[in-house]
Amino acid sequence: MDLRIHPELPHRKDWRIGILGAGFIVSDCHLVAYRKAGFNPVAIASRTIARAEEAALRHAVPKVYDTPERLLEDASLEVLDLAVPPAAQLPLIRAACERRTLRGILAQKPLGVNLAEAVEAVALCRAAGIALAVNQNMRYDPSVRAGRHLLESGRLGEPVFATIDMRGIPHWMPWQRDLGWVTLRIMSIHHLDCFRYWFGNPDRIFCSVRTDPRTSFPHKDGIASYILEYDSGLRCVGIDDTWTGPAKEGCPGDIRIQWRIEGTEGLALGDVGWCKDPYTTPSTLRWAAKGDSGFHEPRWSESWFPDAFIGTMAQLLVALERSAEPEIGGEDNLHTMALVEAAYRSVELGASVAPQGLLDAAKLVNLLEPNQGVGSVGIGTPGMGGS
Hints:
This protein is α/β, with parallel strands linked by helices.
């Protein structure tokens, strides 16, 4: 059975890509994936030119700019690949939109530090005629895509209950110390977006958080658990445990990200390879339907990191070729950002929150008070980006 784990690739692979950011996610994921797919990164800049030169040398990127502004002034670039901290994204998107020379932008997740910034970014790109996509790369993990195909093909029947269970220890970035949040906008956003990819927009979310004993700087959402409620009756539960027990303090660890979809006709269980050793370990899938004598266990060589990053860039290039909205377009991503915002609001209220209401309100505020300003162009912490 073809589980359609591979993304569609563009007919033209020589789109001229400029990259802002030169940290791990660029050097070990973006550029590795782009070279594997035959894409065409032609320029790079970072806050620290030495980091940009290092990444350019490693991956044969021909042009290094000493500032983000210099890269944005290159009118030959067709696509901008942003891999910078959330607070740096909106100023860069605004600067790119003012120049109006780009065809497309692939932004990092989260699309800004909050829903309001994401709404503004989408509005800016729409006004400038620039296609905006957001790097929700977990959608392109092979097991996640296989789960989507099993749902679409009807093999699992009507979805009843689904879970994503993360027991992992992320590497928090220095810029998160200033923002005061960690898990919901950085890790949970992947899982919330996957639930949306599989099942569509939930009607409500209930979320509970606590601090992570290992994270030393002030924060609220170290460990998160949440329930997505659909009026159809479907329930999705996420557990994002960044503590996982004292796995770094001398105790044997149990590190994993696993997902499960239970339907009226079948069952699918996935294991995402992230957090394994090495981090490029392929994800896996087991699934079965009524009448099967056992589980189907397809295998593949691709992994979430770095192979999913082929898909995130490919879908933007395909959209540009077709003059269509990207699969992970900015407008769609607003629903993921609203879901994250609703999770924070749920924590504050101790009650379920409807994300659509928050999105409607944010769009109205942007319409009435557009372009309120968020500071000057800059990349932020050297070499740091999202995932």
